[in-house]
Structures
1.
Amino acid sequence: MADGVRYVDVGERRGRLALRQRLAPEARAERPEEVAASLVALHGTDPATVYLAVGARLTDPAGTVPETGRALYEDRSLVRMHGMRHTVFVFPTDLTAVVHASTGRAVAARERAKLVGDMARAGAPDAAWLKEVEESTLAALALRGQATAAELAEDEPRLREQFAYAADKSYEGVHTVSTRLLRVLGVEGKVVRGRPLGSWTSSQFRWAVAPPHPELDVPEAQAALLGRWLAACGPATEADLKWWTGWKVTDVRRALAAIEAQEVSLDEGTGYVVHGDADPVAGPAEPWAALLPALDPTAMAWQARDWYLPPELRPRLFDYSGNVGPTVWWNGRVVGAWAQRPDGEIAWHLLDEEGIGTAERTAIEAEAARLQGWVGTSRVTPRFRTPLEKELTAAKSSPSGV
């Protein structure tokens, strides 16, 4: 310790991760809402990730699909919406106002301006016309409760209007008003994704009117979001915070000051925890194993990942855009990957076998069986394919862990 700043080593960080990310068996939750509250946000770009991330953290994962569906589409205690870095996440409903004010409002202004500009350049109707269509669409959606874009176009035919964009560019194309407008309304927090057209793995969603929420002050909302995330993921560096939120560094620093975050020392440099969280934290009672999905919020939480994901493993675990695939964890570090083969088998492979013996393999195999037990007959293919996941999927059936 120097100048009152405590050093937090890798072992403690992994212990905090195990308990606060609900990965150790003793920390598992009873309901999807508890998982989402602990993680702050569940990545929603790939719909299956939400369910797989929840199931990995439930005491009894057998009810993962119906219970997560209930929370999302019946109770609305969880909401799928745009959030940090212009990415779709699932949040606890009580965080929607915070997320919208802290990260969505500025993006929404840019998205609307871009839509209006693209339509103007294409000679399409003006902003006043677009506003009429928007109001009519929201009214129709409120009456229907949930609807697809095609269903809404039955009530508001102007949604079918098309306009060209990026003329004379290599990416020139045609957009339908419904596609662009509903996207903008989503970023603005006026509509959210509703129940999918297919199963829990489907990426085709209906739309629903967003739950009402107050309009918060931006600095206030940023402080609230950063505080929630640090409580779940701290300690983290300024670079981690800037990456996860997508904010400017000045916004991150202002929010850190507002919550009176405490400094700690990390291998990467200065880190931060919420006020009062700098004391040593004991890890879980027993070593643990986990199979986490592609884009899992734990694997993607920090920008600097060396303390839980060795750099030499990354080429086979990430796609070319930096999206992490399905991962196998042992006691706080990523040691390999898993995949579901066409016949439904959950196959896994270790890339890092340090400290992995018979007992550890047995624990990992038990987690694979636990996952296979609740996924059942569903077939899950990650939206973003990674080298090792594709290898495991294509391989002929063989004993797991090889």
Note: The chain has a mean pLDDT of 93.
2.
Amino acid sequence: MEKRKLSFWEIWNMSFGFLGIQFGFALQGGYMSRIFQTLGAEPHDIPGLWIAAPLTGLIVQPIIGFLSDRTWSTRFGRRKPYFLLGAVLSSFALFFVPYSSTLWIAAGFLWILDASINISMEPFRALVADKLPDEQRSYGFIMQTLIIGIGTWVASNLPWLVKQLGFAETNETGVIPVYVKVAFGIGALVFLLSILYTILTTKEYPPKDLEAFETKKNETNFITDFFASLRSMSSNMLKLGVIQFFSWFAFFTMWSMATPALTEHVFKAPAPLKKEFNLQIPAEKLEFETLNNTFQTASDSVGSAMGLYGLSSMAFALILTFYSSRLKVNRKYIHMFSLIAGGIGFLMMSVLPNPSYLNASFILIGLSWGSILSMPYAMLSSSVDEDKMGFMMGLFNMFIVIPQIIAALGGVNVLSKLFGDTAIAPMLLAGTALIIGGLCNFLITDKKIISG
């Protein structure tokens, strides 16, 4: 069946659910480390507490991709049932995570949250390839990036906005501020409603041949397909995987370590450690509460600054949306220069440790983020079997989660030491990884996937 070109609003509707998905990711990325530190975690413990996130992605995404490729209902479609399941579970986890009373509970909710977001997110990538002809795929993935940018910016600033409405700070030991809890609750609602909007406004195409579809579904299984796909993975996919490896190592380092790194290096307000204070002595308790309040305020500022990378990626995607709707883009060079720009943004954090320059750093990082969310998927979708699009997108995400697992299991702590023992060292590591990822785009030589 020949796919017709879709209008702006049709592509907008099918991508709108990413607003909620990004609310989940932005609140998780911007505030989970803060929650961990509020509950008593030390900076070197934080990457390990994040290990659940990439592990769930490694397991969940290929499975969901495989299942969604083999799902078809005239009433519910192919990808939409997974959107809804992930949205319900994610909304539950988002609402309850800031109420965690201990580190292990918070880490458990992070595991549930990330697994649930992955259930919704993976089929959204496949939906673009399902619905759009090849010449519109760059446009479709860039549209997703535009909506992701909006979600990142709004969600990253949501706790600050809620705080301005009159919700008070808290100086109590180990207690998450109320305004953070309210922000996560709003995020849960936005997640569910935005996914429902896409489900209700988007129709999916049926398989080309239903009889052949049913036969193939009954003849294959996940394990066989998994190993067969690994053996037959194209050189293009492997090259894109190398670029993804360095890109996502960098962003995992930012999500897990930006709060401890920047509150200390830029705002001079590190999180106080409870073990260093005798809270039974009034003077020491007051000192701890004062330092903790300063840390919470600095964390708000870091969260708001991080929101700028969402705003920047949104502006970048908006420009590319208008351009790619009419003309082809060079995916390779856009991705290369965007990653290098983000790497420079990270390096600036050390050279210019000032809150004003921090905004400029995250604007540059936003260019990388906007490209990471669109260009690799656009290139990949032009080089894989459409009948296995969901599964291959899930398999491709191995190149996203494996670097994050390596980072969480000690990669960040060990490799950061190459840049010294200062708090900002992880951000220097992130910048270096992004620049290497950018240069790896020289590996891409296939003209079919470069232009689109």
Note: The radius of gyration is 22 Å.
3.
Amino acid sequence: MNIGIDKMDFYTPAQYLDLVDLAQARKTDPNKYLIGIGQRQMAIPSLDQDAVVLAANAAEKILSTADRQQIGLLIVATESGVDQSKAAALFVQQLLQLSPYLRAIELKEACYGGTAGLQLARDFVAQHPQQKALVLASDIARYGLQTSGEVTQGAGAVALLVSANPRILAIAPDSVYQSQNVNDFWRPNYSQEAMARGKFSEEVYLKMFQNLWTQAQAQKLWQPADLQALLCHLPFSKMGLKAVRSLQGQLASVDYERLMRRFQASVQYGQVVGNIYTGSLYLSLISLLDHDTSLQAGDQLACYSYGSGAVAELFTGTLVAGFQEQLHPHSHQKMLAQRQRLTIAEYEAEFQQQLVTDGSAQELTQSDPTAPHYLTKVEAHQRFYV
């Protein structure tokens, strides 16, 4: 029985910052951003758009009435959670009007959380083939104004509906993974912004990729000649590019060139949305399928997932017949094209806004009228959504 991604979509806020504007404001050569890290724009969320809202807005795009009744497992993977105890999934369950008879949980392991959710969902469906699982990878990347990580911020969510006999991608049951305790990136409970050792994190990312690639070859999980594309977690596109480039000399030239060509298609959305942590790998999957029309049913894709701290996994999926009918490239391009470009002053003002934390009441207005959900107020230490 094949199990995998039956439907998928993404949502990102309706405003963005152009990185040329940011470079000029920070007195930096724009090519340091455009070429050096391979990014062009980054999404900027408003105060009414937290991880719950982003997740619910992504999910609304793919769920039918029947889907809502068949979902037996709801997972929100995030490192931007809104509560230390209560799962973001419970808020999302109510907003999406899902059946009460399901498991609703929140998962955390940095950017790896989305893959942890996908693999847990696959195992759930294997045991309950008549049910479906909904995985929502939702995050807001924040590093602070005028910090070294400022240019790699972003916001958005990816929704993955997992089922038996999927219509997009069948996930292979075997994969390779590795975990180790390293301090390359973290965010203490008392901090609104993440802390990172950028160069060290890149080294760990690439080392774990090479370890898993070698392990997969030793276990004969796949042959490089059979892989039609290699997708990577993309905190910024240059990071994934270095992973693909590390295979040069290990692969036949025709295989390396094929993976490199398709990698360029996979980064198109990430370059204008920015880093969305748990959803970044899956945004690259959507980008690849939207931009490369040469892919066919039966093609095998490799996916490298990485979460600082650190956990990594390398797994494969196979495109199924008719997958093209489940894609929505035109709606994605329309959503991105209609976003508002913020000035530096508007971006900095937006960034510095905060929700109250003293128990007082705070009313919020909806920043994206095209989206179905938003945070309407905070009162008595509780969040209220529409």
Note: Residues 306 and 312 are 4 Å apart (CA to CA).
